[in-house]
Specification:
Blueprint (H helix, E strand, L loop, with lengths): L8 E6 L8 H13 L4 E4 L15 H11 L4 E4 L2 E2 L5 H15 L5 E4 L18 H19 L3 E5 L4 E6 L12 E5 L4 H8 L3 E4 L5 H17 L9 E6 L5 H6 L4 E4 L8 H10 L5
Parallel strand pairs: 1-2, 1-11, 2-3, 4-5, 5-8, 8-9, 9-10, 10-11
Antiparallel strand pairs: 6-7
Helix pairs in contact: 1-2, 1-8, 2-3, 3-4, 5-6
Length: 280
């Protein structure tokens, strides 16, 4: 298991839609979650969603509100389709949010999908998965350079950042943890996840599927000479009535309490929140 701390932590994973589209509402939920012993609050990053969803909040504004309403919980976008955002702007946003939160940001990244909201096709974003993967990797390289506080000199296939120094630096060093989303059976997302600080597998069907992915990530990290004692997280999204313990036994270090995006309600989230986090 590629983690120094094997205790299971719990987070609310909130689609900030409709009743949750007001940042004040989400920030109050986060404060209540912190008081109830939850370890994190993470929010979806979308510009639109399919019907019947009609209202969508901005993740950065929401996370800033969460940061100011809490003191201990981890927070972040889960996940950000990084290819549709300018990496130099994300560098500023992530550093500022990490400073604002006192070093509590976790950055979830992935390719994203046009499937559920047509948010790429309707806004002229890149639709080719392979190109978005290139853009994702290039953006992550820029972020790592920017978080160092040193002069960034980058001219790549998709982005340019020449002679720019990004300060203030994030509180966390060398930068906020990066969790990479991907399908557990696909090699490229697993390789990308192994290069960073965590893995967020999507569309899990069974704990054995997670165990196989964790074993593969562990192998890839060992091949790259990562210290086995380095903290590495594996976050799984599961509804509150799922057998969370079986996924923890398979290698999960975080449980992300999952809510159906088309039907999420304030009362539903409050109910899960009051039930409390999963046993460690």
């Amino acid at each position: 298991m590629p983690a120094a701390d094997t205790s299971l932590r719990s987070a609310l994973w909130l689609p900030i839609f409709d009743q949750l589209a007001n940042p004040l509402v989400t920030s109050r939920l986060a404060a209540d979650a912190e008081e109830a012993g939850w370890h994190g609050v993470f929010v979806w990053d979308h510009v639109r969603w399919r019907e019947p969803v009609t209202a969508v909040a901005d993740p950065w504004i929401t996370l800033a509100a969460v940061a100011t309403a809490t003191e201990r919980i981890r927070l972040g976008p889960m996940v950000m389709p990084l290819a549709r955002r300018r990496p130099v702007k994300v560098a500023r946003e992530t550093a500022s949010l990490d400073v604002l939160s006192g070093g509590r940001l976790t950055l979830g990244v992935g390719l994203g999908s046009d499937r559920f909201g047509e948010e790429f096709s309707r806004t002229g974003e890149q639709l080719d998965d392979r190109v978005r993967a290139e853009m994702l990797d290039e953006s992550l390289a820029i972020l790592a350079a920017a978080w160092s506080g040193e002069l960034v000199e980058h001219r790549g296939d998709h982005y340019t950042a020449e002679g720019i120094r990004f300060r203030p630096r994030p509180v966390q060093r060398p930068g906020p943890p990066v969790w990479v989303a991907g399908f557990p059976g696909m090699t490229r997302p697993l390789r990308r996840a192994a290069r960073h600080d965590g893995f967020f597998p999507v569309n899990l069907d069974h704990p054995d599927q997670l165990a196989e992915a964790v074993a593969r990530v562990t192998e890839l990290r060992a091949d790259a000479s990562h210290d086995p004692a380095d903290l590495y997280d594996v976050a799984v999204a599961l509804p509150a009535d799922a057998d969370v313990a079986s996924y923890a036994a398979a290698g999960a270090t975080w449980w992300m309490a999952e809510f159906a995006p088309e039907a999420v309600s304030l009362d539903q989230v409050r109910g899960v929140l009051r039930d409390g986090p999963a046993p460690p």
